[in-house]
Amino acid sequence: MTYEEAYQKLERYGQLHVLERYGELSEAEQKALLSQIEAVDFSVLSAAKGGEAKEEGRGKITPLTAMELDEIEARRDTFTQTGLEAIRSGKVGAVLLAGGMGTRLGSDDPKGMYDIGLTKEVYIFERLIQNTLEVVDKSGGWIPFFIMTSEKNHEKTVRFFKEHDYFGYREESVVFFRQEMAPASGYDGRVYMEEKGRIATSPNGNGGWFVSMQRSGAAAKARELGVEWLNVFAVDNVLQRIADPCFVGAVIETGRACGAKVVRKAAPDEKVGVMCLEDGRPSIVEYYDLTPELMEAKDQKGDPAYNFGVILNYLFRMKDLERIADRILPTHVVEKKIPYLDEKGVYVRPESPNGYKYEQLVLDMIRELDTCLPYEVVREKEFAPIKNRTGVDSVESARALLQQNGIAL
Ligand code: UTP
Questions:
Q1: H-type helices in 226-382, by residue range?
Q2: 94 belongs to a structural domain
Q3: Which residue's CA is the closest to the ligand 1 atom numbered 4?
Q4: Domain of 149?
Q5: Least crowded by CB within 10 Å, which of 45, 288, 291, 401?
Q6: In a domain, 409, yes or no
Q7: How many domains does the chain have?
Q8: Which of 44, 176, 206, 394 gets mutated to test ligand 1 (max ligand atoms within 8 A of its CB)?
Q9: Are residues 180 and 281 in the same domain?
Q10: What is the DSSP letter of 244?
């Protein structure tokens, strides 16, 4: 992109300050800035209007029945056989979402590199690989393992896996791919600069994972390998089952386009997104959109009608992902701390939030699909997220849960 083209693009989005120090840059830096301007999608910034996060309109919310533990238990053998067969024949891939910044944990390294061990080293990545290896052993088939990183953590992540010999996984079954980045801005929607010649950017949320898989060639690789289903999961739940044969089998046997692992809510007002139907399509309603009426609504058994929260572990059918890949997902505006260069050229690491990041979320993909199976799992056995260092959803709480499940730390 030429300087003139960059100028025009920035002018269109009211971001001309990006070129303020262009004259002070070396030729190489100028070139890099012009290509960053070319690559950045500034249209997401319209989601921040005068400092106000844009409200998303919601459709009509009605209950979506989950498959509960008793039914899963009754059909466990059939589901497990179907799932194992699909895995053995290479139809199931795993996608680890590890592109996030993990700012709440406060480590500069990728979150998966965090050591949660007490008497020995136990890395988050290691736990996830161990969990997957259990299914590899049981099924006798290698599960292609895709890892999404971002520009900010790619090199470190790849190096870490190499250094640890992929924690016993087969190297050729591991495929890394990078997600896209989005600009970060102040409350007024003006992008921050992180260097004189560089716009501040952050990973664009976990919702773009399949598009990034397609752009990077990882989706084509999955296709080549004969993958038909992708199990997508977050990096921070160290207890989760990956490519769980019973879950895979349940989704296949019930003919759904996707499945979502869910846990029974601890309390009606627990802060988790719950599965529902929205205008008749599967969807997830965030806790802040759950009105008192919805919170108190009951199903035929007299249980709360919106009782199952998602844990960011989904199974998607590739064919459907390909079909919906060009749909535009909503942009979520998230308040965050964004390091930036101030007017004097000093690099500032703010102590409190100073602007917005713009993210697409995987949960919004569910609404694009025709059917989804909410599949209940036992919280204490499958849900130990690490978001913070201490307190709720922390290293401490996850350690306790791991030990409760017999995992030596
Ligand atoms: P979180 O919502 O916990 O975000 O991500 P985060 O960036 O990791 O952590 P904080 O909010 O800054 O503390 C849930 C999952 O989605 C992945 C994360 O790596 C995690 O597995 N994710 C998130 C991405 O892969 N890319 C993103 O852009 C954001």
A1: 245-253, 292-296, 318-324, 363-366, 379-382
A2: yes
A3: 100
A4: 40-404
A5: 288
A6: no
A7: 2
A8: 206
A9: yes
A10: -
What is the amino acid identity at position 365? M
Question: Is residue 315 in some structural domain?
Answer: yes
User: Among 373, 366, 70, 93, which Cα is nearest to 251's?
Assistant: 373
Strands 308-317 and 332-336: unpaired
* pTM greater than 0.85 (yes/no): yes
- CATH number of domain containing 314: 3.90.550.10
242 and 296 fall within a common domain = yes
**Tens digits of residue pLDDT in 321-341:** 999 999 989 899 989 999 999
> Is the Cβ atom of 104 under 6 angstroms away from ligand 1?
yes
Please calculate the CA angle 113-355-332 and round it to the nearest 5 degrees.
Answer: 75
pLDDT tens digits, 198-236: 999 999 999 999 999 999 999 999 999 999 999 999 999
- Ligand 1 center from residue 102 Cα (angstroms): 6
User: Do both 263 and 125 map to the same domain?
Assistant: yes
* Model confidence at 54: pLDDT above 50: no
Average pLDDT score over residue span 363-391: 95
Residue 43 tokens read as 């249209």
* Ligand 1 center from residue 320 Cα (angstroms): 24
Residue 173 lies in a domain: yes
Residues 3 and 111 in one domain: no
Nearest CA to ligand 1 atom 9: 102
